[in-house]
Specification:
Number of helices: 11
Number of domains: 2
Number of strands: 24
Structural class: alpha+beta
Distance between the termini: 90 Å
CATH superfamily of the largest domain: SGNH hydrolase
CATH class of the largest domain: Alpha Beta
Oligomer: single chain
């Protein structure tokens, strides 16, 4: 009997321990924690992991939803909610406080997107007003992965001088201005990795499905192969000097690595949209970028499962060469960004030709105009406010004798030249050689000419790596660089 009691006791204790472990195993996704912001006005998935068969109950704003974990996963979907808070989120016995409902945006891209507020111009002044308990910042360590991740480690924090200092400056200014105008809580998720190519932010299936993009998947294996060959040679020669660098040590090189490690684990968190600032790495692939960027936008929208959410594109800042009559891969990349904003639905272009530092500085510090204009774009695209949110965009050209007349969209209150006569225009005749041109505003049009070009065929504006331009609309938003021609691009593959 004593042995039977002992056996029964052990079995009972094991059952209790198993139940406790199963209960302790209920884990919400890392985005659901103290200080989180949930998206207003749309269904809000809440999900996580638990033991199979575990009953999970989510309580929020006097509503209760239950589900059962299957294959280690569980998910409930809260119905659309109005903005407000703070509220308490309960998941079984877990309790998370200070939860807000408002607007949620993802800030993504490479180093200019991720540059912390502390490194931006006038940082100390901006940090003095950074305290805002209804502006929440979520930042997590960058991670590149060979396969899609399902969770992440991070933390929501209310904006303070301390937390804003480390957060994306572009994101901070964006969220600050949204808060001022929309008067609802704002949550920002920073997913930025410096020195990355856009292809690394696209899931493999979408690259494989496009004949133009599929060869990009060969770049990383080829780098590894070259490394193995160089390493073998290094060893054969007696290991003299430094060994060749291993591509695997720079995990940013991994195929689809940033999508797998930084974007996949965010999905399907409910968001209003994405602000994207990237392209510096892709200037050498500028022609292909007109396919890469639309593919990336489409892939995120499809894998997020939330429809065509707003996607705001920051055009590259001025960098390096001011020659407006030479070929420029940088200008071609900016054109690909412009083309994407014109051909992909629910997108907007943010032009920042006036934010350059020294031409040799690829990381200009004045990030406030970038965030301010992103907020304008969000208000116009995501919220439908009747405002002018973009600078002048080239529309059409007519030729009359030696004069070219240009028309624009997003003229707003009218065209304006800042600080003197218009500059940055070039013109070409049948020889396709561009020369500096004179330009003048005539109502909502611009007349362009050069007395030496009797029969113009094309006009370009700001066609340089570091464009020196001053065309704005009267709302103070700069015009995007453009070209009226379709001459072959320098980064375009040559026909066989």
């Amino acid at each position: 009997m004593e042995g039977m009691n002992h056996t029964f006791g052990v079995q009972a204790l094991a059952c209790l321990l198993f139940a406790a472990l199963a209960h302790a195993g209920i884990k919400p996704h890392g985005l659901f924690c103290e200080n989180a912001v949930l998206q207003q006005g749309m269904p809000v998935p809440i999900w996580g992991t638990a033991a199979d068969g575990e009953r999970v109950t989510v309580e929020f704003r006097d509503q209760k939803f239950s589900t059962t974990a299957t294959n280690g996963q569980w998910k409930v979907v809260l119905p659309p909610m109005p903005a407000g808070g703070p509220f308490t989120l309960k998941i079984n016995s877990l309790t998370f406080t200070n939860i807000l409902v408002g607007e949620v945006w993802v800030i993504s891209g490479q180093s200019n997107a991720g540059m912390g507020l502390g490194d931006c111009a006038n940082a100390e002044e901006h940090k003095k007003s950074a305290d805002d308990p209804q502006l929440r910042l979520f930042q997590f360590p960058w991670k590149s992965s060979h396969t899609p991740e399902r969770d992440l480690d991070g933390k929501w924090n209310a904006s303070t001088a301390y937390w804003a200092h480390m957060f994306s400056g572009v994101g901070y200014f964006f969220g600050r201005d949204l808060r001022k105008v929309r008067h609802v809580p704002v949550g920002l998720i920073s997913a930025c990795v410096g020195g990355t190519y856009a292809e690394k932010w696209i899931p493999r299936a979408h690259l494989e499905a496009d004949p133009l993009l599929k060869p990009l998947l060969d770049k990383y294996p080829q780098e590894l192969q070259r490394y193995e060959q160089a390493l073998a040679k290094y060893r054969q020669e007696g290991e003299k000097g430094s060994p060749p660098p291993n591509p695997e040590n720079d995990t940013r090189n991994r195929n689809c690595g940033e999508y797998n490690g930084m974007i996949a684990p965010l999905q399907p968190f409910a968001i209003r949209g994405v602000a994207w600032y990237q392209g510096e790495n892709d200037a050498g692939y500028a022609w292909l970028y007109r396919t890469i960027l639309p593919t990336m936008i489409r892939s995120w929208r499809e894998t997020w499962g939330q429809g065509p959410f707003p996607f705001l594109i920051v055009q590259l800042a001025p960098y390096y060469d001011t020659n407006c009559c030479a070929d420029s891969a940088w200008a071609e990349l900016c054109e690909s960004q412009l083309r994407t904003s014109q051909t992909v639905t629910n997108t907007a272009l943010v032009v920042i030709t006036d934010t350059g530092d020294d031409p040799k500085n690829i990381h200009p510090r004045d990030k406030e105009p970038v965030g301010v204009r992103l907020a304008l774009a969000a208000r116009g695209i995501a919220h439908g406010e009747p405002i002018e949110y973009c600078g002048p965009i080239y529309k059409s050209m007519t030729i009359d004798g030696d004069r070219a007349t240009l028309t624009f969209t997003h003229v707003g209150g009218g065209l304006a030249a800042r600080d003197g006569a218009l500059k940055g225009f070039t013109i070409a005749g049948d020889d396709r050689k561009f020369v500096p041109a004179q330009a003048a505003i005539s109502g909502d049009r611009i007349i362009v000419w050069n007395e030496q070009v009797a029969r113009p065929v094309a006009v370009r504006f700001g066609w340089a790596s570091y464009p020196l331009v001053n065309l704005f609309n009267k709302e103070g938003l700069p015009a995007s660089p453009f070209r009226t021609d379709d001459f072959p691009m320098t980064t375009q593959p040559k026909s066989p």
